[in-house]
Structures are given as C-alpha cells and as structure tokens.
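Could you please consider the sequence and fold appended to this message?
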Amino acid sequence: MAISQRVNEHPRVPIGRISLHLQTSLYRKKGGLIEKVREYLKIGETKDVFNVEDDFIEIQDGYFIKRVEEPQYTMTFGDIIVKGTNVKACSKNGIILRTLKPGIKLKVVSFLFTSSDFTVYGINDNEFVSSDEDIQYVSGNFEFNADANVLIDGQTRKFRKGEILQYQVIEGNSILLLDDIWLDISSLNGTLQGC
C-alpha cells in the first residue's frame, strides 16, 4: 500500500522501501514521543520508508519501526537498470568483480559515495556500480489514481487509472521521467511510491 494523495497537497516522498523478515512492532508519535502501539507488521510485508533517524525508521501511514539488526529487514533505495554491454560491478576498493548483463534491474541497498559528478550505488554488501557506467537510476514510481490527459513536450498523452511511470528524481511538484522529460504532477491525482 502506498500513500495516496494529490501531489499538490505536498506529499512526503518515499526515500526507499523496507521488507520485513520478522514480525515487527509498530510505533506512533504522540506528544513528541514515539510510543509503541498494539499493531504489528507481518513477515514479508513491504512498506515505503520516509526517514531513517536515530533508533527509528519512519514508514508510511504515520508509523515507525524500531531500527533493529539488518538481518531482520531489507531496505532498498530504488533500482538501477543496466543499459550498456560493459557495465562493471566493483568492490569498495574498485576491483572489478563482474560484468553485468544489459537489461538487468538491480535493487540499490546503499549509497557508497555521492557527489555532484557521480554516485556509487551499492547493489549488495560487496558490489558497487558507479553512475559513470551506462545505467539508469530509478528512485520511484508515480501511479495514476484516475484517467488523465497530460501535456508532454507539446503533445497530449492519455494515461489510464493504474498506469505507472517510473521516475529518476522529484523536485517540487515535478518528476524526471526515465526518458529525461520533466512532468508536472501538481494537478494529477496519483500516488508516489518507492521502488
């Protein structure tokens, strides 16, 4: 389940997704304090993540879970799609470990390094891929909650309820689609989701 609201209501943008490997207690903020509630998340549930701070991970619907040892959950921060035929996965030290196949989609589990020039994405604990490689980063999805006619590059395009667009980044009320086109979603009825 994702947060369903109009973007012009200033929705919070998910920074990632968390999948739970154990039943997990839920918490809510009450009077500035985070208190345990009687509800739980079941094994295998996946939720959007909005913030990771101190001892808690903020997930969708105003809930928090306690940060526990990582074997109890898997957190991801988007996907990379391999575009080129010579994309290398390397160790933290830059040693080439393997060549990735074009078209493969990999979950991003960490960011080893980020600068204005490039980012190094962790695809598991031991392998990393640089944004210098021929890859596409996908940070999330926008799902239409109703049919919509949208003007893109001077042409009207019809989107059906349930149609999903992947995006690289969101700035204000606009998303950068995978084909490098900015789409203003401020007047659209849709859902932002992590991937």
In short: The chain is about 0% helix and 55% strand. Confidence is low (pLDDT under 50) at residues 1-8. Residues 1 and 23 are 18 Å apart (CA to CA). The radius of gyration is 18 Å.
